Amino acid sequence: MARKSEIVGMKELERAFRELGKVPQTVATKSARAGGRIVLKAARANAPVDTGELRDGIILKRERTRVKGKAVYDVMMDPAKNDVFVKTTKDGKRYYYPASQEYGFLTRDGGYIPGYRFLRRAIDENANQIERRVLEVAGKEVDKALRKGQTKGR
Questions:
Q1: How does pLDDT run across 55-74, given as a tens digit for each residue?
Q2: Which residues are 6's β-sheet partners?
């Protein structure tokens, strides 16, 4: 014998999931930017300070993507400041100063000076906080979008 059952609120849940599929790109953008800001702030705080150029040259830049619902932000060195960051040794060799500070470098005598890893530590030390912030902002934005969508139909 077939049993018929009904889940209370199922139609509303199905409607909410359909609306969730229509959530605007701004949800992904705002939540990714919120997580990126945490990394940016930590990277600037961790950056070695000699003249301050290195710290001030760290920027947050959005990657281009063709995938709807995806947003990625890079914490990177500002390409506009390459004239400041590209250094030249006495024998004419060029090197990128931020990379030498991040990863380390070899000295003339063959010794190794370890890098500060300020960009890597900015992500590693704040991973849980970044995740929580991204989910928090995404949740708020999805709720806002769903409320906006429900009021349109009335």
A1: 999 999 999 988 877 889 99
A2: none
Q: Are 47 and 118 in contact (CB under 8 A)?
A: yes
Task: Give the Cα separation of 87 and 16 in Å (integer).
Answer: 56
Angle at 104 between CA 37 and CA 111, to 5 degrees: 165
Would you tell me how many other CB atoms lie within 10 Å of the CB of residue 49? 11
Q: Which residues pair with 104 in a beta bridge?
A: 114
Of 60, 36, 26, which Cα lies nearest the Cα of 131? 36
Which tokens belong to 85? 């960051």
**How confident is the model over 67-97, as pLDDT tens digits?**
877 889 999 999 999 999 999 988 888 989 9
Return the SS3 of 73: strand
Place of tokens 């900015």: 122
Confidence of residue 146 (pLDDT cuts 50, 70, 90): confident
CA dihedral for 64, 69, 72, 73, sign (positive or negative): positive
